[in-house]
Structures are given as structure tokens and as C-alpha cells.
Specification:
Pfam families: RMI1_N_C, RMI1_N_N
Structural class: alpha+beta
Shape: globular
GO biological process, one term: resolution of meiotic recombination intermediates
CATH architecture of one domain: Beta Barrel
CATH class of one domain: Mainly Beta
Largest sheet: 8 strands, mixed
Family: Belongs to the RMI1 family.
GO cellular component, one term: RecQ family helicase-topoisomerase III complex
Strand content: 15-25%
CATH superfamily of one domain: RecQ-mediated genome instability protein Rmi1, C-terminal domain
Organism: Elsinoe australis
CATH topology of one domain: OB fold (Dihydrolipoamide Acetyltransferase, E2P)
Number of strands: 10
Helix content: 25-40%
Number of helices: 7
Length: 228
């Protein structure tokens, strides 16, 4: 494809702070169908980039990084100096106890849901079965995120943000336009964060498979079955 097409696609992605490696963009354009309309080509490039590991697909020379000491708990407060794209590696609803989340996962495994005090058996393909997991995501949420340079840090949803919840996909990309970092924790506030979307399928599948055991591993050792 022509250099003009590559430039147009690159500009479209850059508007969302997505700066793919030249090799990634060249490979994408080479695999695209000839005569694909430019708007469709732009959206396809965006979709594929959001489904990729940004530590491998984004150009590190053009992609801003999180602060060098972002995880330093001795720094009371610092701010991001420029917009940064990160990907979600883990998310937890800390507005509910871990035990209650484990119990709900086990209900889903048995094909059940709770309506009031009544336990209802669900057909696997019913709408209630599909929506049950999204109903429990009340927040606030704690996320583990990673930038294009491989830096990982936890982030806390200080105010409710549309698109952040247990129904978001692992591997989803966030654009942190502005945010403060307090003692190694990024504070996420509405208006400062844009959920770009995306999903890394292998990560999402593994996260869902391991979620119950992960929650159990985070329970205080001395609880012996009590809520954390």
C-alpha cells in the first residue's frame, strides 16, 4: 500500500496515543485486503492494536512511559507528565469481600443466581446467566496496569469510571490523560481516564480460569472462612 495510506493510518492511531512499531504497521498493511476503504482500514488497525500486547507492539521511542519511580511508596505524590497508554493485567472489585465474590463464582459454576432470597437455576444460554457477572461489579476497583515499556503498577478507581469493572476485558487499554500517583498507586478519576477497549484473548481466558483461586490466595491466612 502507498505511503499516504500508511501515514493516514498512523495519524489515526496517534490521535489515541497509539504509536505502533514500524514493523507492526508494515505487517498489518501487508496483510490487509487490497482496496480496503481507508476508514475501515483505520478501524481494523485500531482493533488489532488494542488486541495486542503493547509491550511488544508499540514504539517505545514514541510511547510515553509511566514515571521512573511510579511504584516508589516513599514518594507522597507525583503526577504523570504526559498521557500514557496502559493495558489491564488484573482487576479486582474491592467494594465486595473476596469471600462473597468466591461464593458468586461458585454459584455461576453451578448454574445458579440469587434473586432476593431465592436461588434460581439458570439455563447456560439465558440472558440472566450472561448478565450475572456484570451485576456484581460495584467498585471501587483496583487494577494492575502495564505501560509499553513493561512497567507494572497498581491503580485505584477513586471515582466511578464508565467502562471500568469486572466486565471489562483483561488486556483492555486505558489512556491515562492525567493522573496523580500517591505512594506507588495511580489514582484514577473520571475525566482523566479514557477506556480505549481491547482484549488479549489468551490473558483474558487465563484470568477467568484462575480468578477463584487468585481470590482465595488473597484471603488473610487467619480468616478460616470469615469475610476479609
Amino acid at each position: 500500500m502507498s505511503g499516504d495510506v500508511a501515514s493516514d493510518v498512523r495519524s489515526h492511531l496517534a490521535a489515541k496515543q497509539l504509536h505502533p512499531q514500524p514493523e507492526w504497521l508494515a505487517s498489518f498493511l501487508a496483510s490487509a485486503r487490497p482496496n480496503t476503504p481507508l476508514p475501515a482500514l483505520k478501524k481494523s488497525a485500531e482493533w488489532k492494536l488494542l488486541a495486542a500486547d503493547i509491550a511488544q507492539s508499540l514504539d517505545k521511542n514514541l510511547s510515553p512511559a509511566l514515571p521512573a519511580r511510579v511504584t516508589d511508596v516513599t514518594i507522597q505524590e507525583q503526577r504523570l507528565s504526559s498521557p500514557v497508554v496502559v493495558q489491564v493485567l488484573d482487576i479486582e472489585d474491592i467494594g465486595r469481600s473476596r469471600w462473597s465474590q468466591i461464593e458468586l463464582i461458585e454459584q455461576q459454576e453451578r448454574g445458579e443466581m440469587t434473586r432476593g432470597r431465592e436461588i434460581i437455576r439458570l439455563a447456560p444460554d439465558s440472558e440472566d446467566a450472561t448478565n450475572q457477572s456484570t451485576e456484581i461489579s460495584r467498585g471501587p476497583h483496583k487494577l494492575l496496569v502495564q505501560d509499553a515499556h513493561g512497567t507494572k503498577v497498581y491503580a485505584f478507581e477513586l471515582t466511578p469510571i464508565t467502562g471500568i469493572g469486572l466486565n471489562m476485558s483483561i488486556g483492555a487499554k486505558l489512556l491515562l490523560r492525567s493522573a496523580s500517583v500517591a505512594r506507588g498507586l495511580i489514582m484514577l478519576e473520571a475525566g482523566q481516564v479514557e477506556v480505549l477497549g481491547g482484549k488479549v484473548n489468551a490473558w483474558a481466558d487465563q484470568w477467568a480460569k484462575d480468578r477463584k483461586e487468585t481470590l482465595k490466595s488473597r484471603l488473610p491466612q487467619a480468616t478460616n472462612g470469615t469475610n476479609d
